[in-house]
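Section: Multi-chain targets

For targets with more than one molecule, the full set of components is provided together so that the structure can be written out for the assembly as a whole rather than chain by chain. Components appear in the order listed by the source. The example entry contains two components.
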Amino acid sequence: MTDFLNASLRQLSGALETKDISAVELASLFLDRIDRLNPELNAFITTNREATMEMARNADRRLASGSAGPLTGVPLAHKDIFCTRGWLTTAGSRMLSNFVSPYDAHVVEQLATAGMVTLGKLNMDEFAMGSSNETSYYGPVKNPWDVTRVPGGSSGGSAAAIAARLAPAATGTDTGGSIRQPAALCGLTGLKPTYGVVSRYGMVAFASSLDQAGPMAKSAEDCALLLDAMAGFDPRDSTSLERPKDDYIVGLDQPLTGLRIGLPQEFFGDGMDAGVREAVEAALAEYRRLGATTVDVRLPNSSLSVPAYYVIAPAEASSNLSRFDGVRYGHRAADYGDLNDMYCKSRAEGFGAEVQRRILIGTYVLSHGYYDAYYIQAQKIRRLIAADFAEAFKACDVIMGPTSPSVAFAFGAKSQDPIQMYLSDIYTISTNLAGLPGMSLPCGMATPDNDPSNQAMPVGLQIIGSWFGEAKMLNAAHQYQQVTDWHLRLPEGMK
Amino acid sequence: MTYQAHWEVVIGLETHAQLQTKSKIFSGSSTAFGAEPNAHASAIDIALPGVLPVLNREAVLCAIKLGLAVGGTVATRSIFARKNYFYPDLPKGYQISQFETPVVVGGGLTIRLPNGDEKFIQLTRAHLEEDAGKSLHEDFRGKTGIDLNRAGTPLLEIVTEPDMRSSEEAVAYARALHALVRWIGICDGNMQEGSFRCDANVSVRPLGQKEFGTRREIKNLNSFRFMQQAIDYEVQWQINEIEEGRAIRQATVLFNPDTGETRAMRSKEDAHDYRYFPDPDLLPLEISAAWIADVRAGLPELPQAMKARFEADYGLSPYDAGTLTASRDIATYFESTLALTGQLSAKVVSNWIMGELSARLNKEGLEIGAAPVSAQQLAGIVCRLADNTLSNKIARDVFDALWLGQGMDADAVIEARGWKQITDTGAIESLVDAVLAANQKSVEEYRAGKDKAFNALVGQAMKATKGTANPQQVTDLLRKKLGG
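Its structure, encoded as tokens over all components, is:
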């Protein structure tokens, strides 16, 4: 009898095919577990058993009729940033706390077409702005490894749900690290594709030039299967790339002999926890044993990535979030005087502090007289950062380093200090600025530097690929996962 | 209107031409006018979370046509930018427009002034953008309704240099542009429905001063008459202000057609900071040289070129050629008529179109496209004039009959009413003899030196034939019989 909660997507698919379990039974198994564990973890904002069961029954019909694909009947959950027809789609904000989407995001549509069964909508930092899931209007998500600690963010609900086996897989979005950092902090595998590989249509926009959807799951192989269903040209997104689709699965088993791994010295400097460094170094040693070679590369402008990001992302966000004005949908203040008062009160009530902070920053950097000094400069830095990567990839096939400078931190540890919080993404942000693909996979356990008595928490290894290097990254991650078991570990309390 | 002699007026116009595309500039919704409120408002138009814009290729095609028609440069790369401001009928909280790099740069239009002179008005640029929706303040008792049918309708904003020096020039430019956008088929020009609307930047300066005065912008002029009235009022107002020692402050003003006055709606101090930046949802608009060449090859002959051809080939005066090329419909009507009558009748056809036809159209408020007398029918009349079947007077009667739908063509009307001109020499001779015999009194008076009596005799001959006798032949023969 298969351990369905801990099974890989391929195992689930096989079990569905051989009728070891039906899609309805599988969905029920997870929904029951969600009912039991979610009150503590707060990973889900919305579940809808009836809607889920309807999808599961449809999947069973497809399985019975022989028209099923490799993901038909496999359950997953969506980050609540993806518009989902008939479902509340909140983006973790009071502003959208009453918004039931009348349409499906491209990603939702793709995965539904593949026959996947939606278990629910996952908690997240408000409008994906945060690295700890503490900015959600629906309250923080807890890290299943240690419920006093954050799961990371902004896709914290996605990470916690998978880590606690409330879902076998989930969608996430990554604007500055929002898939990779929570994957690292919760011991999962997550992938942010090259900008333009997955359509942004129907994804509530945070920073349009940086946002990219991607899969989160236990293993690289699961991510490859999911990415295969998510990726592809969508004419509804002008930044979606029209190019032949890559095969993410066929190359997974290739040996790593001759793989050149670039190690940027900028990713191995001060500011990283000792335990993180140790785990990453151990993973690199494993890669050498697998036949890869490591080479030093330089990303000289990477120290500028956080400041450049915190100009560009808020600038775009300030404009993207202007549509939330209380006029057509979303939160509108109960009492107001004139139009301006309605705008001010609705937005003041609807947006949390971090969102307001970023709208203010963005409005400031775009305003007359500051635009050249901030926005234009940041765009120039962005180009330099991309050029650094292009140069580095002349000497290597993938780049590796830590995903996050520390393991999961305690609630409240950084929430009063935005700069400290922003630095959680110091290793992930530059890939978004360059439009590169990146992923995080579990590579060890470590105690926090500032609290050695705490239990050990997962550490993430980051792999950065060259543009459209998803298949290469997935191959590298999968081979590592064939010889290690970090990705199979389960939090103590969740067994 | 003439202004005080020592003031010079400076006017620049910004025109919003709604492009004739089936769907909106960034969504698939219909652009049809007059639907139920919000019937043409899709998820994209109402700016639901997560929706994205996709540029309509047809709108770009319209911009290329305009760029080529005005002799401007069609940019091979232009950028869409977001213009950020809050307003309930602006669903995204920003308008997608073009700011630093527009799709068309430069070019210009030759306008004809009332005194017959021509003047070249330079264009600064033309850029693509989306329209906003409408706020409906009536019908909702203390509330405002929002209709987003118009939101996302494609507009081309066409901006001139401050080249115009009077309201007449401004109107002449607006008319020429209005004709051109319809000529090349990118805008229906319907000003009542707001498909073609102008903002006028107006300033005055003492004659001879190099620097421009401070300008005020009159928004949303949706008729040529209002444009003229608004500018005239504004100019006089500005001159009065300055002469009374008050400085002009930059402002946006609205024209009230009921009072004939302009009034400031907001001053520069509370002007918006639109925080323009490139729209990250849209890639730079790249237009290939091949596409531009294709569009150029498909463009119709443009009014200026056609006017020159009319003058050269048909010997028309610049005034006539200009009037006949004032719109593509008029030009088509003229050329269709000419195709049937032959080039030699160009002047006659031109006179008919500018005379009888225009007068009737004006009187009944019709466009030439809806004229009850078709080009074929007019050609029939002109042919019967040319071969002397019709006199000018009877020709007008035939025209009237055709206008009223009383007959298929000129020949049918002539036949049915017996209006064929009598040109048979024998018949005219008997007629003249009969008239002379019956009007001895007039004959005597004429011989006694009263010239008027001759006219009476001609009149009698025409009356006797209900105007169908060839008047020239009657006259000639009468003179001959009366001994010159």
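Residues 371-392 of chain A form the longest helix (22 residues).
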